[in-house]
Amino acid sequence: MRELNLNSMSCFEAVARLGGVSRAAEELGISPSAVSQKIRKLEQQFGVKLFRRERQRLLLTLDGERLFQTTTQAFRMMRDVHSAIVRQRENRHFILRVSPSFGVRWLGPRLTRFLDANPGWDLRVDATPDFSDFETEVVDLDLRYGAGGWAGLHEEPVLHDFVLPICAPGYLETLREKADDPVGQLRAARLIDSVKTHYRWDFWLARHGAMGERMAYPLRFDRSSMALQVARDGGGVVLESATLAAPELERGTLVPLSPGFEVIRFPAYWLVCPPRHASRRIVRIFSDWMREEGAAHDARMAGFLEGLGCSIRDESGPQIPGAEHLRGPGDRGADQ
């Protein structure tokens, strides 16, 4: 037996389901004569009559009924699968990579607003300190912490960082009992070191003339979220991100060590992807949202810190000779 022709079977199923050649032709988008020809060829292939005409109506024969029960179920299943595939294709599948602390402390609390504004998204967020290898990994977009300069990739800064020494209010009172001036308080403080941030204590202390023989960092963390938690618990002074510590600063559970120390502001969070990804509609939608969220946060944070009496200094990133321990634009493993 020759292989069944799918077009002929489709014509037969439509005629049997709709009860007429004209209706089937209209649904299939072909002429009635073409439908009739397909049915005749199918009957010739099977060697039986599939329809009988009765009072200008087409009725299924017994063989036709048996064939129809099978074909209509098969075509219904194919239509259902087709609809599912189309729906899946139309769903907005988006894979984003972010650093762990930033993902938990900044992005996570804002994602609901994005999803409410963009229903139907299938969003996956990978929180990892490693940057994406877009040639070997399936990732649409990186939201990277860094200083920019990733060769061969599209990059755009969307959020600033605001770096300053902060600690718990109670710990600050203890330091004030030991020294009157902020530099003396720093020298008496237990310093918490976030080892994967762009601005670290060595650079900052040298710049502010606060280096001393006993300056040491007895607490070191490779996660900003851990460093901030220890500082909030009164463990010491941390040189950290007001962007990540915004909730604690606004509640007063963390405070600036001194308004006399400048807040360093620099473009720290970047949208990064291959140039071919930048034109994707799904990437453009998320990028537009990030620009708006980033601009609103930057304005709010700058106003808040200035309200505390802090002055803000704009920079492009750490500029200190021989600071190999500071993260550069090509480094991997950023936590912030």
UniProtKB/TrEMBL annotation:
Keyword Transmembrane: no
Gene Ontology molecular function, alphabetical: DNA-binding transcription factor activity; sequence-specific DNA binding
Annotated GO biological process: DNA-templated transcription
A Pfam family it matches: LysR_substrate
Span list, region Disordered: 316-336
Domain HTH lysR-type: from-to ranges: 4-61
Keyword flag DNA-binding: yes
Regions of compositional bias (Basic and acidic residues) in chain numbering: 324-336
Keywords of this entry: DNA-binding, Transcription, Transcription regulation
Name under which the protein is recorded: Transcriptional regulator, LysR family
